[in-house]
From TrEMBL:
Transmembrane segments: none annotated. Residues 9-170 form the N-acetyltransferase domain. This is N-acetyltransferase. Keywords: Transferase. It comes from the Bacteria. InterPro entries: Acyl_CoA_acyltransferase (IPR016181), GNAT_dom (IPR000182). It comes from Paenimyroides tangerinum. It holds the Pfam family Acetyltransf_3. One of its GO terms (molecular function) is acyltransferase activity, transferring groups other than amino-acyl groups. The keyword DNA damage does not apply.
Length: 176
């Protein structure tokens, strides 16, 4: 699918071979704050998830894609659509680049660009939203560069350790 292919990376559907990569991401405690995870995932549960990943977004209300580096053909992250609401033409989006050394190299920027285009052109969505911790400057910059606008703050929304952190809601509305 040409729509999901960029200059430095491409997005593809989940494959059974992604088991170890997803297991690594889901169990990386340094990422739990952004994924709102509190417990580890077993390979058994991830395998079950992969077996059901063929479900259509209209049925599952979510879509998870692997971000693959074109140069190395290695998985470098995941990008998700969630809470898909075709009636109201909206969907949530999230992204993670797993290894620190692959961050700030433009992969996230390109992946978001590819998926925003896909969402607006193929899913006929009117708006995309993201939830970002107010102290996550990298994600705020990433999504703001695409025109996502902060439309509100959820005060003390997430508990991280002994802290309560605010979470911002950003929205991108399709231009006509």
């Amino acid at each position: 699918m040409k729509t999901l292919i960029g200059n430095s990376c491409y997005l593809r559907a989940l494959e059974p071979e992604d088991l170890d990569f997803i297991y690594q991401i889901e169990n990386d405690e340094s990422l739990w704050e952004v994924s709102h995870t509190q417990t580890p995932y077993s390979k058994f549960l991830i395998k079950q998830y992969l077996e059901n990943s063929h479900l259509d977004i209209y049925e599952a209300k979510q879509l998870r894609l692997v971000i693959v580096c074109k140069e190395t053909n290695l998985q470098i992250g995941l990008i998700d659509l969630f809470d898909f609401d075709p009636k109201n033409e909206r969907v949530g989006m999230g992204i993670v680049i797993s290894a620190v050394e692959n961050r700030k190299l433009g992969f996230g920027n390109e992946a978001v660009s590819l998926l925003v285009n896909y969402v607006f052109e193929y899913l006929n969505v009117h708006q995309i939203y993201v939830n970002i911790s107010t102290d996550n400057s990298a994600s705020i910059k990433l999504f703001s560069n695409f025109g996502f606008e902060k439309i509100g703050i959820k005060k003390a929304w997430n508990k991280v350790g002994n802290l309560r952190k605010d979470e911002a809601l950003y929205q991108l509305i399709k231009s006509n």
